[in-house]
Amino acid sequence: MKKRRFAMLCLAVTLCLSACGKTDSEQQGASVPFGTYVYTYEDGSTSQITVDAHTFRIQNGDYSSCAPFAIASRIFAASAEVKKEGLQLSDAEKNRIIDEANHFDFAAYDGLEVPYDLEELYGTDVNLNAKNENGEPIWGLGLTYYGDDRTIGFGDGYYVLQE
């Protein structure tokens, strides 16, 4: 389980890196099939993600991986910003980011419609970057659609499109 979380964390950082240089026109070609994606836990219970043109809704999700993803993404983005000025991100700022992510209630979004922006990655893979009611990113709550196998990655699982 820890190896899988580390792999997903590395994927999150890689996805952030791959999107940095994309223009709006490059991202407009991204697409995700609308519908309901389902993940089945070992105990037989299920979680669902429903995607439409402007929002996604997670029901009965496992939000335990959101904080680590938020931490990695935010620290990477903040480090890139200060590096432009020839500086390094301070330990105090890193600790503030970690503290905020660890205390953020990701589960509060369970069952709610969450707006998103599409971000084309490579091939048919696409990020669905979650936004709050003010249009700001909800770090750690995004989804990744894998076009080759028509699944969505969230947390520690892959949700399969129900046809």
Write the layout of secondary structure elements.
Blueprint: H1 2-19, H2 24-27, E1 35-40, E2 46-51, E3 55-59, H3 66-83, H4 91-103, E4 113-120, E5 126-130, E6 143-146, E7 151-154, E8 157-161
Helix pairs in contact: 1-3, 3-4
Supply the number of helical segments: 4
Strand content: 25-35%
Span between termini: 29 Å
Biggest sheet record? 8 strands, antiparallel, barrel
**Structural class by secondary-structure content:** alpha+beta
Main-sheet strand order equals 1-2-3-4-5-6-7-8
Gross morphology is globular
* β-strand number: 8
The ordered string of helix (H) and strand (E) elements is HHEEEHHEEEEE
Mean model confidence by pLDDT: 84
Integer-rounded radius of gyration: 16 Å
- Please, what is the oligomeric state? single chain
pLDDT < 50 runs, ≥5 residues = 1-28
Helix content bin: 25-40%
Verbal overview:
The chain is an alpha+beta fold and 163 residues long. It has helices spanning 2-19, 24-27, 66-83, 91-103; strands at residues 35-40, 46-51, 55-59, 113-120, 126-130, 143-146, 151-154, 157-161. Helix 3 runs antiparallel to helix 4.
Which key phrases capture this entry?
163 residues; single chain; alpha+beta; disordered N terminus; 33% helix
